[in-house]
Amino acid sequence: MQLFANAETTGVIKLTAKNFDKKLSDGNVWLIEFYAPWCSHCTRFAPTYELVAKQLHTQRDNPSRTVKVAKIDGAAERALSSRFSVRGFPTFFLVDGWTVREYEGNRSQENLVKFAMDPEEVEPMPFLFGPFGPMGQLRSFLMRSGSWAVGLYENLTKERGMKPLVAMAVICCAGMVVGLFLIVVIGLFMMSKMKQD
Fold first, then answer.
1. What's the predicted TM-score (pTM) here?
2. Which residue from 90, 92, 94 is spatially nearest to 118, judged by alpha carbons?
3. SS (H, E, C) the chain
4. 20 to 30 A from 123, CA-CA: which of 2, 4, 78, 183?
């Protein structure tokens, strides 16, 4: 167990949709790379990014600012990619609490370390459209919902033996029932109260 802990403190930490929120809630600043295994730029930059991780994880110049270095497989973790509005690979973000900054400079060890330690030159993303704001959360929810619907369709057709048209009808009916339920619940909460004289 000690070996794993040391590897995580010096190397690049792998984040997924399952551990993302828990890891980022530790109070540290995070430098995150969205990559794709098929991206040649990502594979060429991987050794340099490991050096960035080692440098930032062992740096003790500013004890009040600990920067952890992580990577996310953006091709596999589409909900997280959508939440951060990733448009290409590799893409780098610095997450400090709810403040998110996107790195747009040249990819080098020196530039990324400088960006992580002194990000004030880069304007933060607006909270409303950022990954932790309402629009980012909505994009993530829609991606997860779509993945869930595709998984349900595959389960119904392959494991339950339903015909594809019947499986689609079941999913559509379930979606309409959930939608109607939400409309009724929201309507009840938003309904204006009757004035009594």
1. 0.72
2. 94
3. CHHHHHHHHHCCEEECCCCHHHHHCCCCEEEEEEECCCCHHHHHHHHHHHHHHHHHHHCCCCCCCCEEEEEEECCCCHHHHHHCCCCCCCEEEEEECCEEEEECCCCCHHHHHHHHHCHHHCCCCCHHHCCCCHHHHHHHHHHHHHHHHHHHHHHHHHHCCCCHHHHHHHHHHHHHHHHHHHHHHHHHHHCCCCCCC
4. 78
